[in-house]
Design brief:
By secondary structure, the protein is mainly beta. It has one domain: OB fold (Dihydrolipoamide Acetyltransferase, E2P) (Beta Barrel). The protein is built from two helices and eight strands. Strands 4-5-6-8-7 form a five-stranded mixed β-barrel. A three-stranded antiparallel sheet has the order 2-1-3. Strand 7 and strand 8 form a beta hairpin. 16% of the residues are buried.
């Protein structure tokens, strides 16, 4: 029996589209490779001793090209955040609600990332977080953050 055209359209409509993935560039490839290996790396300018993010070919403070990739602590705090109750893309509908935050790393740079964990009620500006990684394809892992465990 051949499926009716409406059945095929309904089946296609119920399958969410694939999530958009980052496309590494020459500047960002080391960042994405490190993330795939479970490591958070950011750039550091040897000329003015300053970290920077997002990746660039030169330092945005002193314009030097003496940029190197360094291991970040992976720790920081929530600078701001939102809990999304409406998916920003159809691929994320199954995740609703989900949290996104601007994370200020201990190194002083800020990056936008997902915040994972079961208790969104504990999210707050200034809350300590630590990096974790979500592998979304064979080539991409996304740095995400979770609330840091309190020290005993």
């Amino acid at each position: 029996m051949v499926p009716a055209e409406n059945d095929i359209e309904e089946a296609q409509a119920s399958v969410p589209p694939p999530a958009p993935l980052p496309i590494p560039t020459a500047e960002t490839a080391p960042y994405w490779q490190a993330a795939l290996e479970g490591s958070l790396k950011i750039q550091y300018c040897r000329a003015c001793a300053r970290h920077q993010f997002y990746p660039r070919r030169f330092c945005t403070r002193c314009l030097s090209d003496a940029i190197e990739w360094v291991q970040a602590s992976g720790r920081g705090q929530i600078y701001t955040y939102t809990v999304c109750h409406v998916a920003g893309h159809a691929a994320f509908e199954s995740r609703v609600p989900y949290a996104i935050g601007m994370i200020e790393l201990d190194e002083g740079v800020r990056l936008l990332a997902g915040i994972v964990g079961p208790d969104f009620g504990r999210l707050a500006v200034g809350a300590p977080v630590e990096v974790c990684f979500e592998r979304v394809s064979s080539e991409i892992a996304l740095p995400m953050f979770r609330l840091a465990s309190p020290l005993c």
